[in-house]
Amino acid sequence: MFLKQKKEGHLIEVLGLNDLVNPTHKNVVGRLSYGEELQDAEKFAKADLLFPSGEELPRCWLDVHYRDKELHK
Known about the structure:
Elements: E1 2-5, E2 11-14, H1 17-21, E3 27-32, E4 42-45, E5 49-50, H2 59-62, H3 68-71
Antiparallel strand pairs: 1-2, 1-5, 2-3, 3-4
């Protein structure tokens, strides 16, 4: 899956989809899709990533407490 960096606009190939959808993990392992050579894998903060369309990542992927208000009702 490819995501885009918010500031630089570079595409990131996400290598660990489990890290991406787990809200307790703040980083994902991926590599920049940059140039002709395959880049080395590195960690990227999920808060700094978007979908290539510019849409934000789902809150349930970022915030472990996204449904806490519903539990207190």
